[in-house]
Amino acid sequence: QVRLVESGGGxxxxxxxxxxxxxASGSIFSSDAMAWHRQAPGKQRELVASxxxxxxxxxxxxxxxxxxxxxxxxxxxxxxxxxxxxxxxxAVYYCNAGVIMTPRFSEGAYWGQxxxxxxxx
Length: 121
Hints:
By secondary structure, the chain is mostly beta strands.
């Protein structure tokens, strides 16, 4: 049984920062890639960033240079540091486990409940 619990969302002004956390339980975390996705109202869900067990990362072009994904394997937790936030970053952010990153990205089977991020202008 895999369980993912996100936290850290909230309301922030444009230019501000937030850090999301995703605590994972179950054996999947120790060896699998993880990812953050987001879904804004009326839009399709999109990949934000992903990270392998060894720390290799992948970012959406829209967040490169502003967001940083990291993981602490000892704590079974993956993080998303979001800086220089923009109103267009407003969305529900979801943690995703069981991700495949090579040879091409594929979503994992396990999802958290999502955490709302709202960026005001």
